[in-house]
Fold each of these.
Amino acid sequence: MSVVISVEKISKKFDLHGTQSWKTLRDTLTGFFQRSSKREEKVLWALRDVSFNVYEGEILGIVGHNGAGKSTLLKILSRIIKPTSGVARIRGRIGTLLEVGTGFHQELSGRENIFLNGAILGMKRKEIEKKLDEIIAFAEMENFIDEPVKFYSSGMFMRLAFSVAAHLDAEILLLDEVLAVGDVNFQHKCLDKMKEIMNQGRTILFVSHNMSAVTRLCHRAILLEKGRIVAEGDTREVVKTYLGSDWRTRFDREWENYVQAPQSEVVRLKRMRIINKDRQTSGSIAINEPVGVEITYEVLEDGHILIPNFHFFTQDWYQIFAIQDVAGKWRVTPRQKGTYVTTAWLNGNLFNEGRFFVEVAISSHSPNRVHFRTNEPVSFEIFEIPNNFYTRGDYMGHIPGVLRPLAQWETECCQFRMKSSS
């Protein structure tokens, strides 16, 4: 396979606290009269000596926590910003979908922005016109395509932006959190479209916190931490490293800064934690005791039926199951503004030994919509108890599998008498 992207020792430095390279007249005069006060310069290295290759027809996953440098890397590859040092060589036409709104003109309609994005990619008007109906239909925007995009919701914006990026003829796609906004059905459409693009031999760089999507789509992945590549190779091994790092193995997450919290305009997550049978926060649960997953969230807008969802994964990021809050009146009753606490209890003697991860989402039905899904999971460890005669008996070896449920066993001794003939 030929190399279509070659990144060689890319570094990117950002100046902090107003240490800009230019100076105003006031800055110059202030510096002249205050020679003794030397301003301390502070910098942030978003990327440091990053090198890798991307091959034609490959979907490369890029993972890492917030602030690791993922989006900065894609902006450099899409020529939005320049690296401080290093070089990126790209062979082919690039289409990008970074933050919601990147490359869109707020005053133009959706239809006009399709032509604008195509022109930026270097496509002729006739080429765009051939794909126009397909782009609009995929985005499900027929009724709004001639409205200015400044009136679009974040979900509408993302649907149109993804559809434009996926349908225009770019050999390389750079996608940053394309599954973070929108309803479940459209997320599945995005995944199916990405598989179709891959089968066409096009190349994708896929940045996402959705580990299940990364492991399904990508054969190879890169893990960034503090601007450096710390793991590269088989996707499942990279994801396992990502989830096993110390900052990930947390059983209690709380968002004091509401801006950074997972949210929509309807609901915002405040806290998620693992609790034991005494409702105490705990990351280690005995195999025979119940596991509780508790979330605290704030409803910001009246009149919506909100359904908490908990998704359970192994350490290798295989999804085991997902559960929804279908109990009681909340399934059919719109919630009023306020703070709510929802807890799901799973019986003891369900999980096998090992570490498990939980992602949280809140959705609405009719129409289906995911308001948010957490970027970073909480985790818990299931440990064996001494003299466990319930699911282990007197066997002390390894018991395979993800689950080890407590079953009801019945055994009868059936004796048959045989008649002898003389």
Note: DSSP finds eight helices and 19 strands in the chain.
Amino acid sequence: MRQARSVKPTLSIVGAGRVGRALGQRLRERGWQIGAVVTRSVATARAAVRAIGAGRPAARLGPDVLRADVILLAVPDDRLPSLARSLAKLAGRGSRGKIVLHTSATLGRSVLAPLARRGAATGSIHPMQAFGGKIVPNLQGVIFGVEGDRKARSTAQSLARSLGGVPVAIATHDKPIYHAAGVMAGGSLYPVVEAGIALLMRIGFTRPRASETLLPLVRQILDNIERLGPRAAWTGPLSRGDYKIVAKHARALCRHPREIRQSYAALARLAGRLLSKRPAVARREIERALGRRRRRTV
């Protein structure tokens, strides 16, 4: 006797920007049924449906959104409170039994309280991954921070596993720290790498040559960190205690924008505190190398 195939839940997506499109596309590839796809205009909704490969485009909330088993709200944080109120007003008693998840990295389920009061299960799911430009990232092995009431959290965990990710429960009050960790480790790379490119361009490198110089270095460092951990992989003048080179860098950077000088100094201090085997000694030597003791604030 042939066994019946399990049917994946239906998913409506409200706010199909980078995150909403990427999650919708990956879930559609894994058998989830895509329902309404809602954005601010018909044109962007249709574009989102084309990118996802399924769904029914809409420019405003309507009954079609509520026909799905799961409603995913992938909008900016500041839009979530009003969206939750509008959706709760639209659904009324029809909220009962629905599962509503948002994708904010910092907000908890309380922002969806209007829906919870009408009987919806509410929570959040956030992939710790970069969604840049038109690139749809591979979510295999990616950590998904999940939070919410029991039913919503269980659904978020199932959704994350469908994407090949690893769900990790995050307490509501810990979500800002969870996100700050990602921004420090990942988001800070954008300006830091751009600063390195800018410095090389100031001494005659073209932008392509500057990128070609630095990006393999960044990739190798990340590979080393993955294999060895930050402390064991740490290299460069600070790791060797070569503070004369740090002083030379500080003097050379005096001719460059203040933000770059300050960033170099802040990163040196952070490395001394977190990676050095003797943080107190490193801190003292770094300050001397940066010339802090020789300067007076006015």
Note: The domain at 10-172 is CATH 3.40.50.720 (Rossmann fold).
Amino acid sequence: MSYDVDLFVIGGGSAGVRLSRMASGFGARVALAESGRLGGTCVNVGCVPKKLLVYGSEFRTELADMAGFGWHVEGVSHDWKKLFANKDAEIARLNTIYGRILERAGVVVHHGRARITDPHTVEVNGQRITAERIAVCTGGFPRRPQIPGGDLAITSDEAFELEACPKRVIVVGGGYIGLEFAGIFKGYGAEVTLVHHGRHVLRGFDQSVRERIEDEVRAHGIDLRTGSEIQRLSRTDEGIVAELSPRGVASDDLVLCEDPDRLVADVVLYAIGRVPATDGLGLDELGVERDRHGAIVVNGEYETSVPHILALGDIIAYPRLTPVALAQGMYVARKLYGPGSEAIRYDTVATAVFSQPNIGTVGLTEDEARGRCACVDVYESSFRPMKLTMTGRQEKTYMKILVDGDTDKVLGFHMIGPDAGEIIQGLAVALTCGVTKTQLDATIGIHPTAAEEFVTMRTRARRLDD
């Protein structure tokens, strides 16, 4: 059968752009539909603008640090509107670049919302286009609170549109987005309370990292309320009132306790997870399987339960990170239209949290290592960064290495401190190559740097065995 295109991609984010561009480069006829701005979450309301705001927010503490080095700065002020204007200009520049990339690759771009009408047909802007394969790469969107007054809250999407920096902010959610925005608002001078229902923030991260970052967040001046939930929001003359309750246990269910605490804020930002953007695509009508969280279920080749329909990126239940989406797009393009590709290794995917201070991690957590290995050697180091030794800031850098005690193979690296993401990236390469502790010990460090600590930790902190 003859089709209009070989591949129709729905979604112009990281996965969709990489897949369509690479597939077209391999000779496939490719079309792409995007209802919003090209670049997806990462470029428009995610990684890029958030990191720009993080950079700007860090200058407040750096200005304070300058006094220790003899600098005296008078009359410093901040222009929020200029910050956001420059941020918007940078995003517009990237949107244009994405468009040019697709145009040069020969991808036909349809600006509109697409719907799949059968396994080989997509409808967009009233036009029906047939394709041998269809790839769904529509990403996700922030989950909104289901509480009385929840409509008074904003999500990370709306945070990038604030016309002024709020003076009082409540951030709800102890994941990486919540921690990052708490640090951002604090850096621009807001009074920040971070509310998280769990006992510790950053579920899924190494326990040592979770506990130590909580200490640093509090030392940064953020009021961290773990084990708490907001019952309701209401608007008064004071601002937005949040009624807070600790979580109590009744039988096997978590319930809200009586006597709620009361907080008042100008902005309440919910960062409680993201939802796969699957609605309105025609997936249910076609019988495309989704899990209980709404993510599309795929096999190892990113094929859905319906032949000829694939799914990649944040819409599936894999690590929801931009580099992962890019890797998936590359893999599928090479597999279908190119020379083929090795399967993606998810066990050595590194990640960073741009909290203040930063977090970088790759490999197994201590709990995961204990569950897989009979003997685990733990190496740890905590120190005050050299840059801060002449300042009043007491922030500590923390590093951790997990090693299989029987094979000497490194299982994981974890770090809290300046440039943690930059440092962990290189260690992710080493972990992917199967680095051993002996090889780390044989590596000459760069002095004086924080990174050298990873190759000079010779004394084992503890051994975990049966």
Note: The two ends are 61 Å apart (CA to CA).
Amino acid sequence: MKIFDCTTFFDEKMMMDIRFNVLNKFVYKFIVVESLFSHSGQKKKINFKKTDYPNFKDKIEHIVIEREPENLIKENQIKKNELNKRLNSIKRIEQSYDYMSFGLKDAQDNDLIMLSDNDEIPNLEAINLNEIKNNFIIFEQLFFYYKFNLIYDKLKWSGTKACKKKNLTSLSDLRNLKNKKYPFWRIDTYFSKIKQTNLKIISNGGWHFTNVKTPEELFVKLSNFGHYDEFEISNLNLEKLKKKIRNKEVLYNHFADKKDKSRWDYDYKLKKMDDIFLPKYLIENKPKFKQWFD
């Protein structure tokens, strides 16, 4: 069984370096999809270069999206309904997943396809994938914020999702897989591609390192990522963002309704985590990443 690791890229060079080093000994091919457009539709340059990762360049397939999705909602319709911003963002995200399939042409039926955001790193050290007989896998991950050792302890993150090629309907279906194993008698599962009965949730499933950026870099990310429309109503400017990071406060309430503006008025404090729970590569190279440890 070969492992294909699929992810997207905006400008997260450090995170990709960590990802490649942590997963290299397990992964047959890294599939990296990058678009000439952000999720908000802003034109951008190509930021990913194989030459930045010389030790892994032979394993990397870099796929570039050169055009916008054809079915985007027109600007005049967006002005009538702001929710259409989010719908366009979803279309761009799904397009990036669809493009990953171009990197799977040499994958065989029993090869494992893993799908993650690039800051969701599965822990493949702690499991034997060959012993897992379930059709689908979700890696439940520790949720780190701003620094590699500051954890949001109220939430485990359902990050990386995986299945064998023969069970893959589409990368979008895999990404939207529900993090719940449904009982076999649930009739709706027979008609759903994202509700599964044959599912394995791995509790020690790795690490989600979110928003490990400078305040300036983070502001750019939040203004362009998939939920940029929600950030637009957050009332968070660069100075407020700096204050949140300085005070080690979670960015927003992950349990609140997305339409609730008050979810951004959240001051829950992050906890410092012992290094032993981090990937070996980070522990062994801590001086290299000292800026990103609290």
Note: The mean pLDDT is 90.
